[in-house]
């Protein structure tokens, strides 16, 4: 008899495996069941309804920024949900655009040969990355925007723009019926520019001659609609905001909550995007640039055809996760009362209905859906730009 | 074939002397290479210099020269003939400092908080200093002894003569540190388990881990905190309903675990296959293989990422603010709103003080992560 432990037989391992799985399922299921029983009991005790019936009930609360028609007396909780979601998407969409521009500028600035520019960009990144976003949002909102002048001392800019601590008020463009012809011209111009590009590509492949495509396209896309607008006695009019005694009427109102959230989100995310961009550019080996130059490509062309496509391959995946972070971080709006999805739905609606389980589940499902759809698109994009091995 | 004089070129007079090349070394050379290499660069440099010269003196004036350092109420920080344009109101911070650190923790018991800070600092140094002796005991201390010790110290056990202090009295930096520490102490082991689960061969384990990780990473921390604070009490029998701070701690810890799991998974992926196979060949069962061979290597490789995740966690602790917990940022908000100190500069001062605290902590940690990274890179090259 040897006292060396025999490894368990294959059959025993398999059995252990299945037992483990069954046990895990039982534990998880048991916890879920107990939670559900408790929740039902607690909810019944507190006289809180369950189910999604509340969706069509009248909301009865006001929302300070609504992109779609909404009134507290007639709109439903479901409508409030859409208002909140659109507000989230608005701040996230503009934030992503601003953060990308600023992030690329700072990221390339960090790589600048100019010592001062590189140091300033590095300082920006270090300072912004190491201070919590919530603190930055509160700073912009309470320390910067709240210290703007009061309503009666509003600053009036030329062009009918009014600024005070209630927000920034811009003239609202109002489109006459003839404006649709301007849109049609714009559409035609874009189509023409695309056709031109196809033709120029083909000609360059055949004859080697290049066309000044950019300038012609710009002239088409800007010139045509603009010319049309000027010819047909201005189909756009502006309604200007009027400063009243208690508030400002008319015009487009940009809430300080929106501005603070947007500023903080863009500045914060830009610092992370800058690092992503820097890493992406550094990942392209200098040999690539040298080889392109040796082939006689000009610096601009080298950048456009050799460096950027390779850098983008490294940049895009982390860039997407930064975009997702920005969308998720926009939920911090709740701290300053910008009516985003979380503030409207997981805040006001939850407090009124008390249906925590349903409300939180819907809110989380929205963010999950955004994340999953984005990562799906990113995977497709990743396949499209993957290096084709031959 | 005879070479004629004009079939090749031969210089007959010495070439003209060229002027010496521009200085490459020294201060002037450095300036020329780094700041003034082209007209565009000169313009950029000029813009930067002008904006720095415009901003820095103003900051200096506001935060140092014209700042108010002492006083007992808002009068000190309002414009006066002596100081017509008052800068930062540091007097406000000085008066409120104890509140910022301890919240409403009873004054007589604050030595317990200090002791907790000391015990924590000791544990951090033991773990973070890579050359420290017996870091395995350090880990035991940090993950087992310290949590128990902290609970006894902070919450109080009447049996040991420490009176009970309700968590509703905790506040300020104490709460920030507690949330962050609980986050790391819970999320690291849980994250390791989740990462192992995600790479497990057992389908159900894998499914559970992946679902949890992807779910938590797909939603904002705020919704997790909301869930913990409003849904958790529903899911347990009423008499076990956890208190407010504990609910937030659970939310933060679960949230951090999902992120930690992904970081650990990266580390596991970096361990070469041969290591697993060798351990298997030696006859090590799964857990001993992981504990003795794979995890030590994986965690070392991914230590910088763990620290970076922890920086994110530390910044995210501010979000407990939203569910009504008096963390450091919330105490700043509360103090800022005090009418005794309402001045135009109070908010800015409070926020800048908070920013300095968070910056010092996070920047310190990121420097540490970077130093570990360079150390690892050096070890890799060898």
How would you explain this protein's 3D organization?
The complex is a heterodimer of chains A (390) and B (382). By secondary structure, chain A is α+β, with helices and mostly antiparallel strands. Among the domains of chain A are: 14-47; 77-143 and 253-385, MetI-like fold. Chain A contains eleven helices and eight strands. In chain A, strand 2 (161-164) and strand 3 form a beta hairpin. Chain B has two domains: 26-65, no CATH class; 90-105 and 165-381, MetI-like fold, CATH 1.10.3720. Chain B contains 14 helices and no strands. Chains A and B meet through helix 1, helix 3, helix 4, helix 10 and helix 11 of A and helix 2, helix 7, helix 8, helix 12 and helix 13 of B.
CATH architecture of the domain at 77-143 and 253-385 in chain A: Orthogonal Bundle
β-strand percent of chain A reads 5-15%
C-alpha-based Rg of chain A, rounded:
28 Å
CATH architecture heading of the largest domain in chain B: Orthogonal Bundle
Strand content of chain B: under 5%
CATH class category name of the domain at 77-143 and 253-385 in chain A: Mainly Alpha
Structural class of chain A: alpha+beta
| CATH-defined topology of the domain at 77-143 and 253-385 in chain A | MetI-like fold
**Please, what is the oligomeric state?**
heterodimer
Q: What gyration radius of chain B follows from the Cα positions, in whole Å?
A: 30 Å
Largest interface: A-B, 55 and 55 residues
Mean pLDDT over all positions of chain B: 87
Q: Which fold name fills CATH's third level, the topology of the largest domain in chain B? A: MetI-like fold
CATH superfamily of the domain at 77-143 and 253-385 in chain A: MetI-like
Q: SSE string of chain A, helix = H, strand = E?
A: HHHHEEEEHHEEEEHHHHH
Describe the sheet with the most strands of chain A: 4 strands, antiparallel
Whole-number tally of structural domains of chain B: 2
Helix proportion range of chain B: 55-70%
CATH class of the largest domain in chain B, please?
A: Mainly Alpha
Tally of strands of chain A: 8
Strands of the widest sheet of chain A, in order across it, are 1-2-3-8
